[in-house]
Specification:
This protein is an alpha/beta fold. Helix content is 34%, strand content 14%.
């Protein structure tokens, strides 16, 4: 790869020969607008907002799809370019609802930001929009076709990153639309509710089903004792909602913020992440000793569970029977917590703060009420929590630090890394190694399962026994693993699968702008949290020891099996 000489807006430049005009401009301080372009997706060149003039070309060229060439003379700021881009954006706005003040994307809508950048104060021409019904069919996502700008980013992530493929671009010209096949609703197709389409969408055409009002109602009900749990990855992403850098660690500020909102107790999902490791680790050892179904697959990611239920139901026996940490927390919050607090379980209301839209679906599953009560009553995404904190007037960035409440607030570094791809595997290996070998693990970092590679494979030596493990994140990579199990080629004992790219730090409920670069920063921060924890192995958490001594009695025991384990459903498609 060499360099080529180009002229951009009258300035002579030397740039790499294998980049687009858009990238060359960006590297040299010029931001060319776009709506369909996304840093983690293929080039689509269908919005035409990024057009530029290239000397010698009869037509304007799309800068995202046109590569630089030697001697190329480019201008991104001529009257012709500006007028063309404004006309394109006006046509999009003419077919778009003008409800910016009340839209869920108010303040971070890419279309609105572009219109402001272009200095557009009114929309010329006649409104062309025909109002279409909203798709309210799922428990997690709402699709608003009236706001769709046909950029194709949602379909791209659905087909080529997740390979679920339930969103399509239909028709041509002015009849183009993006929806499930044949106009079906999301509930009628194999949508796993991962929410990656929400993160990809530049506007408010698809978004999470909001539970904020339901949580406010609970907080304002004097009969309710409202407790909240915080997922591992939320602590390294919530600060982004308040203008802080990606990956900012805000655990203790978040605890203070939730107390200001009125929660009676602020607990940590990391507590039940540690509990999950004990149950799941013992389940793996039991399968190894008893000839159980192997490889065992993790069950912490609800989008992944829904995926295997739809697309690989014959492999459900491989899935761990453990509930996710969210659901384990709800189960102990309605049983163990009433025992130690003296509060009646029917008065306890459990709210989860999760990075994931599919967690809303998981909480609503009929299986998730083994205590006699719904495990989790409401789920807020990281984005919803950001909106709720602003509604409550919380000055997040200037809050003091606070600690989690007992008894469900104590956790370890192993639990913290649950939010990163490979984290569940690493946490499990820290415990399984010491249980099997009886030796103290000298190096806690399992580098072989870390990183953003789609499928990671590693071999662990357990006192002379070689155990092969694998980690996959993103459903396209999960599909590769599933096919290898079906074909009998998968030589693994234990496999971690996370639905979303990067793991939970890249969940569909995370702040907008979750690119791979941002995901890596969040991952790095979770490993920093882990490294700074006084206890870094789940089985050494004294609160976990206590819950077994006082309540659960033993891993995989009768009470644990009833409250902490579940079964899954063949959904077919």
């Amino acid at each position: 790869m060499g360099n080529v000489n180009i002229t951009l807006n009258g300035k002579a430049l030397s740039v790499p020969s294998d980049i687009s005009i858009m990238e060359a401009a960006k590297q040299n301080g010029i931001l060319i607008p776009s709506l369909c372009n996304h840093p983690d997706q293929k080039v689509k060149a269908n919005c035409r907002v990024c057009v530029v003039e290239v000397e010698g070309s009869k037509n304007l060229m799309s800068s995202c799809s046109t590569m630089v060439a030697e001697g190329m003379k480019i201008n991104s700021n001529t009257p012709k370019v500006r007028d063309t881009v404004r006309t394109i954006v006006e046509l999009i706005l003419a077919d778009h609802p003008q409800d910016c003040l009340t839209c869920v994307r108010s303040g971070n809508c890419e279309l609105r930001q572009l219109a402001a950048r272009l200095g557009m104060k009114e929309v010329q021409g006649e409104k062309t929009q025909n109002l279409l019904p909203l798709d309210l069919s799922t428990s997690a996502l709402i699709r608003d076709p009236n706001k769709c700008i046909k950029c194709g980013r949602c379909a791209e992530v659905c087909h080529h990153i997740q390979e679920v493929g339930v969103l399509y671009t239909h028709n041509r010209s002015t009849d183009v639309c993006v929806s499930p096949e044949y106009g079906k609703k999301l509930s009628d197709v194999g949508c796993v509710l991962c929410g990656q389409c929400v993160l990809a969408c530049p506007v408010g055409a698809i978004y999470e089903k909001e539970d904020i009002d339901k949580v406010w109602d609970a907080l304002n009900d004097p009969q309710k004792h409202v407790v909240v749990q915080i997922a591992p990855s939320v602590r390294v992403s919530i600060a982004e909602e308040f203008g802080q850098p990606s990956g900012s660690i805000a655990t203790q500020k978040l605890v203070s913020a939730l107390r200001l909102l009125g929660f009676d107790r602020v607990f940590d999902t990391d507590f039940t992440a540690d509990l999950t490791i004990i149950e799941e680790g013992n389940e793996l050892l039991h399968r190894l000793k008893s000839g159980g179904v192997l490889p065992m697959l993790t069950s912490c990611s609800p989008g992944w569970i829904k995926y295997i239920e739809h697309y690989y139901p014959e492999l459900l026996p491989h899935v761990s029977s453990c509930k996710s940490p969210q659901q384990m927390f709800g189960a102990v919050a309605k049983t163990y917590y009433p025992q130690v607090s003296g509060i009646a379980p029917e008065d306890i209301y459990v709210v989860s703060i999760m990075p994931c839209t599919a967690k809303k679906f998981e909480a609503a599953r009929p299986e998730m009420q083994d205590s006699g009560y719904r495990d989790v009553d409401a789920v807020l995404t990281t984005r919803e929590l950001g909106r709720m904190l602003k509604q409550g007037g919380v000055d997040f960035n200037n809050l003091p630090n606070s600690e989690f409440d007992d008894p469900l607030g104590k956790s370890t570094g192993a639990a913290a890394i649950f939010g990163a791809t490979g984290g569940v595997m690493e946490a499990a290996l820290r415990t399984v190694y010491e249980v099997v070998t009886g030796e103290t693990l000298q190096k806690l970092e399992f580098e072989g399962v870390r990183g953003m590679e789609g499928v990671k494979k590693s071999t662990v030596d357990l006192a002379g026994t070689k155990v092969n493990v694998a980690v996959a994140h993103g459903l396209a990579h999960a599909k590769q693993i599933m096919e290898s199990i079906k074909s009998g080629e998968a030589d693994f004992t234990f496999i971690e699968v996370m639905c979303c790219p990067g793991g939970c730090i890249g969940g569909g409920g995370q702040p907008y702008g979750s690119t791979n670069e941002v995901r890596q920063k969040r991952i790095d921060s979770l490993y920093e949290v882990d490294a700074n924890m006084p206890i870094r192995k789940s089985h050494e958490n004294p609160s976990i020891t206590k819950i077994y001594a006082d309540f659960l009695k033993e891993p995989l025991g009768e009470k644990s099996h009833h409250l902490l384990h579940t079964k899954y459903t063949n959904r077919g498609i």
